[in-house]
Amino acid sequence: MKKLRVLIVGAAFSADLHSDGYSRILDKVEIVGICDKDLSRIEALAKRYGFTGYTAYDDYNTAIEQCECDLVDICMPNFLHHDVALKAMNAGRDIICEKPLATTVEDAQDMVDTAERLGKHIYYAEDWLFAPAFRKALSILNSGQLGKPLYIRARECHSGSHSPFAQSIKYCGGGCMVHLGVHPVSFMLALKDNRWSELTGMTSGGQDTNLVHQKMEGEDWAGAFIRFEDGTYATLEANYVTIGGMEDVLDIYCEQGCIHVDLSFSGPVKVFSIPGLDYTVEKAEVTSGWSTPAVDEKYNLGYCGEINHFVDCALSDRDADVGLRGMDGLETLKVINLIYKSASEGVHIKKDA
Ligand SMILES: NC(=O)c1ccc[n+]([C@@H]2O[C@H](COP(=O)([O-])OP(=O)(O)OC[C@H]3O[C@@H](n4cnc5c(N)ncnc54)[C@H](O)[C@@H]3O)[C@@H](O)[C@H]2O)c1
Predict the structure, then answer these.
(1) Does 38 contact ligand 1 (Cβ within 6 A)?
(2) Are 127 and 183 in contact (CB under 8 A)?
(3) Considering only Cβ atoms within 10 Å of each terminal Cβ, which end of the chain, N or C, has fewer?
(4) According to the model, what pLDDT value does residue 1 have?
């Protein structure tokens, strides 16, 4: 069987999430190149996941030019997504792009237009759509046994990004809404086939008006109310003021029932430790006392499922499912920018008004 040849660009946090996915499907994928300006990260990543026979690059231009691959997996800071994507697609490769698709709607639109013009695929890495617990919730919802959905509340929150690039709007595209809220927004848009009708946003504004992170240019708290064409309402939240570990939470209220999912803290393993553990869940500040250590965290957050889906799609030259295409990443960014507009101007926004 022909294997998909992948060049991973960026070898830090998100590259680690994706690599876990690749390492489980080495029968159909081959890591032929890894690029990072910090070469020590490449070696560490490859060692962690047992990748061999790849070429290491410290410059993405050279990597894209020289590496014989089918797909470029972009695990770089947000502001570089556009440049790497364009170069990769112009070199004839499909791409996986981490969230958000770009830092501006214009760049994201350019990426989608380029993919269409060149006949290339953009696989937009929205892991929420592959989290097994969220998929279970959706299958129950879609079975109709709870009746029509009326109201959905979703949030991703933690205490702040580890990445220096998340601190400025130029490099990140905004604050916590574009960095974390991107997940609940994409998830809801995928659920409703991008058919939203009106929205209102509010944020902490950034810098001095932030709740905690006053050196950060973007906001550290944000919320949006969105109404969809079918009448469903949603509250979507993101913040960097949540301590105790990352929260990925989904609540669905229907005519005849409801569903509650807590991805981070609903594991089956409970531990009490006086000295603390090496690790429990993403972004937990302390690990002593009672904790719920995540079981196969990357799989349960959806990263392995998304990588498997993208590899299958690329091998058969097809687009990804709804919510996971370049156009879905673009629509998410448009909605987030309208949430920012609503928040900064104090206006309620109607689609196409
Ligand atoms: N889906 C998720 O849950 C999730 C989680 C974390 C990050 N992300 C996304 O993944 C992307 C990367 O984030 P991260 O946290 O891995 O970032 P990071 O800051 O941890 O790492 C980025 C890597 O890129 C390298 N790099 C930066 N500029 C470079 C250049 N010009 N040439 C070569 N290498 C360069 C850095 O050395 C670093 O190793 C971002 O878009 C982020 O939003 C997604």
Answers:
(1) yes
(2) yes
(3) N
(4) 80
